[in-house]
Amino acid sequence: MDIDERTRSEIDRRLERLESEYGAFPVREERVTNEPAFFEQGVELVREGWIGDAGAWVTDAADRALLIRHEDGPERWGTPGGGHEPGETMAETARREVREETGLEPTLTGVCFARRKTIVHENDPERRFRMLTVIFEGDVDVDAGDVSEKTIEIEDDEILEARWFEADDPPEAVHGFLEERVEDWAETE
């Protein structure tokens, strides 16, 4: 089985398991082309057991959303999340990343969406592999009065800021994959 078939099969298996545990959720399809050196880095990660990344849209009892700014995209806010480590489920990845980036322990309650991405070699379109991104829905078991910016503990040097946002005052700039979720959340107010 080649790397494309292996990653496709693994992602299908993970998506089926997530749907079984959390119910139906949207799966977005994306295709990107990588230059050769970057493509080979991805192939090496896949050989080591990496399958993608995961994060979580985390809210509290007052429906505030926990968002972060990362050094790779400091002008936009996004969900806490990051790279899958071999041996983890996608849920374990999301919980670990939220903990590392904010110090908070979320309870995952659903899947907001998943993205299945096909990575294609720039010079050889027949060479490809797949990766999976899963953004979970989650919450933290605290009252808004008990949570402040002081309780957020950033343990990741790449995180510039993490904070709670109110639905009636969402951030102006968020990463593209999150725009629809922020709009839906802000409309509930």
TrEMBL record:
<dbReference type="Pfam" id="PF00293">
    <property type="entry name" value="NUDIX"/>
</dbReference>
<dbReference type="InterPro" id="IPR000086">
    <property type="entry name" value="NUDIX_hydrolase_dom"/>
</dbReference>
<feature type="domain" description="Nudix hydrolase">
    <location>
        <begin position="49"/>
        <end position="187"/>
    </location>
</feature>
<dbReference type="InterPro" id="IPR020476">
    <property type="entry name" value="Nudix_hydrolase"/>
</dbReference>
<keyword id="KW-0378">Hydrolase</keyword>
<dbReference type="InterPro" id="IPR020084">
    <property type="entry name" value="NUDIX_hydrolase_CS"/>
</dbReference>
<dbReference type="InterPro" id="IPR015797">
    <property type="entry name" value="NUDIX_hydrolase-like_dom_sf"/>
</dbReference>
<protein>
    <submittedName>
        <fullName>NUDIX domain-containing protein</fullName>
    </submittedName>
</protein>
